[in-house]
Design brief:
The complex is a heterodimer of chains A (about 120) and B (about 250). Chain A is mainly alpha-helical and about 120 residues long. Chain A has helices at about 1-35, 50-60, 60-90, 95-115. Chain A has a single domain (about 1-115), classed as Fumarate reductase/succinate dehydrogenase, transmembrane subunit (3 helical TM bundles of succinate and fumarate reductases, Up-down Bundle). Chain A has four helices and no strands. In chain A, helix 1 packs across helix 3 (about 60-90), helix 2 (about 50-60) crosses helix 3 and helix 3 runs antiparallel to helix 4 (about 95-115). Chain B starts with 8 loop residues before the first strand and ends in a 5-residue tail after the last helix. Chain B has two domains: about 10-110, Beta-grasp domain (Ubiquitin-like (UB roll), Roll), CATH 3.10.20.30; about 110-245, Alpha-helical ferredoxin (Fumarate Reductase Iron-sulfur Protein, Chain B, domain 2). In chain B, helix 7 packs across helix 9 (about 225-245). In chain B, strands 2-1-5-3-4 form a five-stranded mixed sheet. In chain B, strands 6-7 form a two-stranded antiparallel sheet. Chain B has helices at about 40-50, 110-120, 140-145, 160-165, 165-170, 175-185, 195-200, 215-220, 225-245, and strands at about 10-15, 25-35, 70-75, 75-80, 90-95, 105, 110. Classes of the chains: A mainly alpha (about 120), B alpha+beta (about 250). The interface of A and B includes residues 9 and 92 of A.
């Protein structure tokens, strides 16, 4: 497992890096719009209507963006939590904990793929 | 020795002692020293060695933050003791050997593992074919130099290894200074060995073990910024890994 994880580190780091970029740039804007903008009525009328949101989300680019918003922050989180646990639990980068966290991220990503494909 | 100016101040030094022939674990010994105001921590240690206790062992050489020999943990923080003003400390100063290294004796640490890691990143200019002398020197523009100059300022003092939380727990991790050095050669316009080094960077001591604590950069006395080198090295190692599927490599 340790060797497999070592071989996959570049991919994981790439997903983590993309997650940071997205998590820092896009996710706050998205959450702000959905959790504050919409309920407080700060968005234009009908901006968050079902039809509009569905049209945006079901467009091929919309699906890709939605998947990125779902999956990449999961990888970022898994990688960060792995480093955090290594510090807290007082051991090195543990391959079992790492694999478990990345499996969660992978499962979330697969669920995300299923969700955007079956919209 | 520093000039005799200003008022002397008495300080208590709690120093790690370890004699491998007698001790199972390191212990501490306390020394009362009247310190001159402009003394560095190293001046006090040399005073203890010369005037109070000749059995104390510690490494030092240049006294001007160039040789990198006198790194120790001062009040728990990795410091170059020749550069660390006693005036910044209180009555009690704890001096320990650098953390994360085996102790040889007292304040002297074992550097073999560190040197092995250094060698493993191939810290020299690798070229596929040596140029003949008649072909003239290798030229490098100031811009090309600036890509790596900062990372070549490392004095191998090992403070970054003592500060790194990953080095503390993952003994195989290449560590900040070795990665910064390998990255320095990868960024050198004269070098052609990046693929070899990137393989080392993705190997057992992988750069990806780094957990972004940034402690290496915090303690670096020469502003090398090893954390920046590590993160640039990560990106390069990923790009190189992806490229290896497209471009066939020799060897």
């Amino acid at each position: 497992m340790k060797t497999l994880l070592l071989r996959l580190e570049p991919v994981i780091w790439l997903l983590f890096g993309a997650g940071i970029l997205l998590g820092t740039l896009l996710l706050p804007g998205y959450l702000l719009a959905v959790t504050l903008g919409a309920p407080l009525g700060l968005l234009p009328d009908g901006a968050m209507s079902y039809e509009r949101a569905y049209t945006l989300a079901s467009h091929p680019i919309g699906r890709v963006l939605l998947l990125a918003l779902i999956a990449l922050p999961l990888w970022k989180g898994a990688h960060h939590v792995r480093a955090l646990l290594a510090d807290w639990l007082g051991h090195g980068p543990d391959p079992v904990i790492g694999s478990l966290l990345y499996a969660i991220a992978a499962a979330g990503s697969l669920a995300g793929i299923y969700a955007v494909l079956t919209l | 020795m520093a000039p005799e100016t200003g008022e002397m101040r008495k300080r208590t030094f709690v120093v790690t002692r370890f004699d491998p022939d007698k001790d199972q674990v390191p212990k501490t010994q306390t020394y009362e020293v009247a310190c001159r105001p402009d003394w560095k921590v190293l001046d006090a240690l040399n005073h203890i060695k010369d005037e109070i206790d000749p059995t104390l062992s510690h490494r030092w050489s240049c006294r001007m933050a160039v040789c990198g020999s006198c790194g120790m943990n001062v009040n728990g923080e990795p410091k170059l003791t020749c550069k660390t003003q006693l005036a910044d400390y209180g009555e009690v100063v704890e001096v320990e050997p650098l953390a994360n290294f085996p102790i040889v004796r007292d304040l002297v640490i074992e550097m073999d593992g560190f040197m092995e890691k250094f060698k493993s990143v191939k810290p020299w200019v690798i070229v596929a074919k040596e140029k003949a002398a008649e072909e003239g020197p290798n030229r490098q523009s100031p811009e090309e130099l600036s890509a790596f100059k900062q990372f070549s300022m490392c004095i191998n003092c090992m403070l970054c290894y003592a500060a790194c939380p990953v080095v503390a727990k993952e003994p195989h991790f290449l560590g900040p200074a070795a990665i910064a050095l390998g990255h320095r050669y990868n960024m050198d316009s004269r070098d052609e060995g990046a693929a070899e080094r990137n393989e080392v960077f993705r190997g057992e001591g992988t750069v990806f073990h780094c957990s972004y604590a940034n402690e290496c950069t915090e303690v670096c006395p020469k502003n090398v910024d090893p954390a920046a080198a590590i993160n640039q090295a990560k990106l390069n190692a990923v790009v190189d890994w992806a490229a290896s599927f497209v471009v066939k490599r020799n060897g």
